[in-house]
């Protein structure tokens, strides 16, 4: 798995118009999120439709509240571990909103956003952790400023406003796997 011209090779591409050009500066932060549509339900392709601005507000009562929002992430990792990319890593996806990391505002300007299909409370799947590990390693190769210390959750860059990826996400497990040499 590797990034070529901002796109991850070997994954589904589902381009979103919910993005724009980044300001000058290197990509130096990875933000982990979660999402499920409708809330607490998985599958159905609603997240993909939402990130592309094609969510049918009549398909579920909750969708009427969010259908007009213009948001996206660079990647979605489904419960099965399947990865979809919506925005080139060289462009600014609209995933973090009002945010701050290391004294810098507007994390969308310098970050890559990964959405895990899930909720704050339900355990993420083995497939998701495996896909997230492989994706993170590929991103770190393509964007060396994303060190392990520059990986964070939405909850930490938008405290009081966001809670994801939540208590169900095993940070220790994920970060320990990143520091373990491959093949051990």
UniProtKB/TrEMBL annotation:
Annotated N-acetylmuramoyl-L-alanine amidase domain residues: 16-166
Main location: cytoplasm
Location(s), subcellular: Cytoplasm
Cofactor(s) named in the record: Zn(2+)
Gene Ontology MF terms: metal ion binding; N-acetylmuramoyl-L-alanine amidase activity
Entry's Gene Ontology BP terms: cell wall organization; peptidoglycan catabolic process; peptidoglycan turnover
UniProtKB keywords: Cell wall biogenesis/degradation, Cytoplasm, Hydrolase, Metal-binding, Zinc
Enzyme class: hydrolase
One Gene Ontology cellular component: cytoplasm
Reaction equations catalysed: Hydrolyzes the link between N-acetylmuramoyl residues and L-amino acid residues in certain cell-wall glycopeptides
Enzyme Commission numbers on file: 3.5.1.28
Pfam families: Amidase_2
InterPro entries reported in the protein's UniProt record: Amidase/PGRP_sf, Amidase_domain, NAMLAA_amidase_2
Superkingdom: Bacteria
NCBIfam families noted in UniProt: PRK11789.1
Family: Belongs to the N-acetylmuramoyl-L-alanine amidase 2 family.
Protein name as it appears in the record: 1,6-anhydro-N-acetylmuramyl-L-alanine amidase AmpD
Protein source organism: Pseudomonas abyssi
